[in-house]
Amino acid sequence: MKKVKVVFLEDTFEELKKGLEWDGKERAAHILCHSSSYKDSIKLMPYKIIVPDEEDYVSRSAGHYEVGKPFINKVMNEAISTQSDFIQSHIHPGPGVPGHFSPVDEGDEIALMRHFASKIEGIYHGSLVFGNSLDNVTLDGWFYDRDSDDYIPIEKVLVVGKNSFQIYIPPRSPLNDISFAASQDRTIKAFGSNAVRMLRYLDFGVVGASALGGPILEFLARDNVNSITVCDFDEIDETNLNRLPGTTPKDIGKPKVEFYSDYLNKISLDLDIIGFDKSFYDVDVQEAFSQTDIIFGCVDSEARLSINRIALANLIPYFDMGAGIIFEEDEADKTRKEIEMIGGQVYQIIPGREICLHCTGVFSDLLLHFLSPEDREVQIGLGYINDEEIINPLVHFLDYTIAGLGYQQMLKYLWKIGNENIFKVGFNGVINNLRESSCMEAGCINCRNGERLGQGDKIAPYVPLESHKFSFELLKQMEDLKDDEDLDPDSDSDSDGSKTVDIAGIPMEIVPLVAEENDLEQIDENIAKLKAQARAVFNRNREHDKLDSKPKLRPDSQQKLEQEALRNRLRYLEDYKLRFDLLRKYTEYQTNMKVKPTVLGVQYSDMNIRKKDRFKDLKK
């Protein structure tokens, strides 16, 4: 059976509660969502609440409501136009009565879900009902599964806040069958059954199963969490034996993920483990991690920026950890080392805070690893990148200390313990110093509401480039035409350098990707121009579809090429602007660096376009 969860940002959830506020009569609210999926798992992420006005109801009383067809059609057409999924919701009467679907709901709603499934190809459609008291929320939820032509229970509803995390389990959810293991008794005595129950309900992701990831995996297994998704493409070698929990010389050569899957199931027999002995850059891996509820980043590479993006796009709190030892060798005695720092840090990237690893620039030097091989060779030749592998010193007690610190920060966030708005916790064991620090919200296209935040599989993965060349043939044609000196001088041309050309039978305006001298204001203008052009193209295609008497998937192949080109040129510009801005900050600290930001780009390929155009217009 499919597993379906709904994940709200706290502000969106509060807006929904306000829209459903009891006024003596039943009320409804309609919700547009982004989504992501992996195999039989689906995550719905609400982003817009649409509340009917009084005139939109056919009737409304203390025990019944009916919304008019014009309002419902308006909402569903907006879902189609924005490629959004849909949740209907309402509130039930009766003080103290918990949220639970009534027999009337069971009859009416499944019929409505079937109706929309027959009219709109591929849309995800769910329903929520709330109890009368929204101060103490109770709810029920189901999801229409077109494969079985029936509704299935929503597994859980999560509310991700800046400083809080709430979990609601509908009465039909299979998670209600979860029980506590006897091994949890001491933890319950310390923190209470509700706190421990939260961990039992949650799905965790761990990127990296080595020095920091190994202890985190063991912590999660001993807390008997619902599931763990883990990835690491490496095998156990002899140098790992000084710090990987449970490993012995007999385990040398085993894939780390395989080893930990067996090891963790010995600790927690019913633990569901989804393991990948692959890189986090693999598409299947990122799709699987999109379905987790909390992610631990336990890598010391540029992959942490890719985790940052996938976590924010899917409303997943992300805890990034790093450990290290800084020392100086004694010139007189090479066998001695003067330890300057032995410690590490934990960063908290919480959806809704508008602060992340990208916009703070804490790892801006890692952006250079996302260069294409061609551009990377240039930077190595100029001395701006050191391509020598650095073997960092690592010891078990430090890794356990930082892993424990990261796990503690996760628990403090879930259980609302201690200070709020903490972005970084740093530890220096030399001086026994533990320091918390916050950071002013900066906001970028990854963590700012209305941008990539919570957009699910509409957001492409962030991976190192295989080539600086675009894989989209249409984009290649557009770039060639833009730079073609033999282009007809009499063709339409604007003062800003854009030209109107004919590509694959589609008249399109070629907006320059990057202005001369990397003028950020000009880049902003080009982004705005592309957005306006995309809206115009979409509206024109909508009008064209209305003339077609036969319902069909929208867009058709020609419209899809046109919209795809616009969408990806826009993403290129937005990524370019972000990287250029961060690289500029980075060069303030690296005064000898003369890297031109024009070498930075983003690759898009067919596998990178995650969101499929799965909807078609309402049938007449």
Element layout with pairings:
Blueprint: E1 3-9, H1 10-19, E2 28-38, E3 41-50, E4 57-60, E5 65-67, H2 69-81, E6 85-91, H3 103-119, E7 125-130, E8 139-145, E9 150-153, E10 156-160, E11 165-168, H4 185-191, H5 193-201, E12 203-207, H6 213-222, E13 227-231, H7 256-267, E14 272-276, H8 283-289, E15 294-297, H9 303-313, E16 318-329, E17 337-349, H10 373-381, H11 396-415, E18 424-428, E19 433-437, H12 473-483, E20 499-503, E21 506-510, H13 520-546, H14 557-589
Helix pairs in contact: 4-5, 6-7, 6-11, 13-14
Q: Structural class from helices and strands? A: alpha/beta
Give the uncertain stretches in residue-range form. Answer: 467-518, 544-555, 582-620
Q: How much strand content do the residues show? A: 15-25%
Radius of gyration, taken over Cα atoms and rounded to an integer in Å = 26 Å
Q: Helical region count?
A: 14
Q: Give the proportion of residues in helices.
A: 25-40%
Major β-sheet annotation: 9 strands, mixed
For the residues shown, what is the average pLDDT? 77
End-to-end separation in angstroms reads 32 Å
Instruction: Give the overall shape.
Output: globular
